[in-house]
């Protein structure tokens, strides 16, 4: 029993005419009659009864028809599911952002406008190694390909009415006398800060830790403590309530990279993704060039 025989059987049952059915199927009448005859031989029962120049379903045909229709409908649904799955796999992009997480909504909107067919899977927290096609990070993995998106300074964020806000720059000695807050140690920004402090042979006493940058910004504006923030990627949260001050001991910076695996390079949209991500972050960097004193929420 072949699929084509079942399709021919349904068409003949719908039109009750071998000639009309053959015309719609773009085959000859003898070819259609042969396929139906072979199906009847396999079933061991006649499916049609001649009625003048027309045909009609036999009792066997009437019983068989709904099962054939249901089976073919299920098969079409299965084929459709596979096609949709292929489409999503071919057009899906897994992106992990260990930095610049506040840009995610604008980032996705930008890509959706350029190509609505792309399906994005976004992750942020990297407590475990995520599966990704692209990684936006300030920490390079030697196995990945990468390009630098932009470089940004890290500056100390203090409330505008804080005693340190009047100083041109703030020393490590001044910081150690204040309540310092920060992100947890698995966060990329915290790791960058710890690396700089290690170079200066300084260990900051962080009084409060949190794993969410938005919560950290809330703690700053609530005058809970002071902390270091990236100037470019946090610049859109600017208000008059927070002042950003440089460190007296020297400038602190971090570079934000776009990384991808070798297998990602084989995807048809790879070149476009790299170009669009680069464009997006370059535009964000250009819009962040504001003069000192900086303020951020």
Automatic annotation (TrEMBL):
InterPro entries, from UniProt?
A: HTH-type_LysR_regulators, LysR_HTH_N, LysR_subst-bd, WH-like_DNA-bd_sf, WH_DNA-bd_sf
Its cellular-component GO annotations read: cytosol
UniProt keywords, alphabetically: DNA-binding, Transcription, Transcription regulation
Q: Does the keyword Transcription regulation apply?
A: yes
Q: Which family does it belong to?
A: Belongs to the LysR transcriptional regulatory family.
Q: Please spell out the taxonomic lineage of the organism that makes this protein.
A: Bacteria, Bacillati, Bacillota, Bacilli, Lactobacillales
Molecular function (GO) terms listed?
DNA binding; DNA-binding transcription factor activity
Q: What is this protein called?
A: LysR family transcriptional regulator
Residue limits of the HTH lysR-type domain?
A: 1-58
- Give the superkingdom in one word: Bacteria
Show the SUPFAM superfamilies listed in the entry. Periplasmic binding protein-like II, Winged helix' DNA-binding domain
